[in-house]
Amino acid sequence: MVLDLASMKVRLGALLNDPAGEIWPDIVLEECIRMGLRELQMVCPYPLTLSGLDEALVSNLDDEVSMSPLLLRLSLVYAWQIRQQQRNETFHPDPKVQEGTLLIASNVEQLERLRLSFLQRSTSNPYLEEETDDLS
After folding, report:
1. Residue 39: which domain range?
2. Cα angle at 82 between 79 and 83, to 5 degrees?
């Protein structure tokens, strides 16, 4: 399977039950993928790229650990959040912004497991060493 922006948008559109892009246009799907990639980047120690997104030529999401399914799930959550906000603005005279209401707990757990995996395999100390004064 080719992992690039176009294939991720097709898969995301299928999961959203909108393959024709009537509810979520391509530009919205692309932004959801970008936000999901940004979320993954917060736990990954090396720069992540997706071919076709932000002028990247290669994808490295599945090089070390398979992160593309998690990126797809995170992008799905962002798409739902955008749709929820649009519907709130349409049907409510005073819409309330609900930040993070759809961040599914399993996604948070997956991100934490991924972060721990990178920490465990790290060859360098992930924490700053404290300078201790010699009190003797």
Report:
1. 5-117
2. 85
